[in-house]
Amino acid sequence: MPYIREIVEDGHPTLRKVAKKVDPKEILDPLFQQLIDDMFETMYDAPGVGLAAPQVGVSKRLFVMDIQDDDHPPAVMINPKIELAEEEVEMTEGCLSVPGKVGEITRFRRFGLSGLDRNGEKIRIEGEDLLAQCLQHELDHLNGVLYIDNARNIRPAATEEEREIAQAASAEAS
Ligand code: GNR
Ligand code: NI
Fold first, then answer.
1. Both ends of the chain: CA-CA distance in Å?
2. Is the separation of the CB atoms in 53 and 63 below 8 Å?
3. pLDDT tens profile 66-122
4. Residue to mutate (ligand 1; options 49, 91, 136, 170; most atoms within 8 A of CB)
5. Cis omega before residue 47 (within 30°)?
6. Against a cut of 0.85, is the pTM above it?
7. Which of 28, 39, 65, 145 has the fewest Cβ atoms within 10 angstroms?
C-alpha cells in the first residue's frame, strides 16, 4: 500500500544535490514502483501539482505530476531531457519545500521533456502555461535548484490566489 512520505524543506541537503540518473533496469523493481506510488500519495495529500523525488529525500531523477487538467493525465517522468523551450514569460510560483511563500520567476511558456515512464517506456510530455511551469520546476529540483534561487519578490502567500499557488504552504503558514 502507498503511504505519505515526509516532504523535506529548504535547508535539507538532499534538495541541493544533483540527483542521480535512474538505471532503467531499476524501474520495474517493486521498491521503485512503491516509491512512485508513495510520491503520488504524498503529492495529492499536500496537495500539489507536482513532486520530485528529492523532496521526499530520494536523490534520483524522477518526478510525478498531475495538473488536474482533462487534457493531461497524471504522469511519471524518469531521467528527463529537455526537448522544447520557447517564449520566456514571468510566472508566479510556489513550492511544497518552501511552504507558505510565492515569488515571480521567468519561465518558458512552452516546454517539453522526454524520458521514461513507470514502465520504462520512452515518453514525451510537452505543453504550455501551468504544465510547462511545472515541468521546469520539477526539473530544477532534480538539479538541486529551488525556485527561490531565481525568483523575485519572494513573499508570504497573502491573497486567495497566492495561497492556491503556495498550496500546502497556506495550511502551515496559518
Ligand atoms: O504544487 C505546486 N504548485 C506549483 C505552483 C506553481 C509553480 C510550481 C508549482 S510546483 C508545486 C509542487 C512542488 O513543489 N513541486 O516540486
Ligand atoms: Ni517544488
1. 31
2. yes
3. 999 999 999 999 999 999 999 999 999 999 999 999 999 999 999 999 999 999 999
4. 49
5. yes
6. yes
7. 28
Structural contact between residues 17 and 106, judged by C-beta atoms closer than 8 angstroms: no
Cell output for 125: 510530455
Mutate to test the pocket of ligand 1, among 5, 14, 66, 96 (most ligand atoms within 8 A of CB): 96
3-state secondary structure of 153: strand
Q: Give the span between the Cα atoms of 147 and 134, in whole angstroms.
A: 11
Ligand 2 is an ion; its neighbours by CB within 5 Å are: 95
Look up cell 500519495; give the residue.
41
Let me know: does 108 contact 129? Beta carbons within 8 Å: no
Number of the ligand 1 atom closest to the C-alpha atom of 47 = 1
Residues annotated catalytic, as ranges: 138
CA pair distance 67, 53, nearest whole angstrom:
17
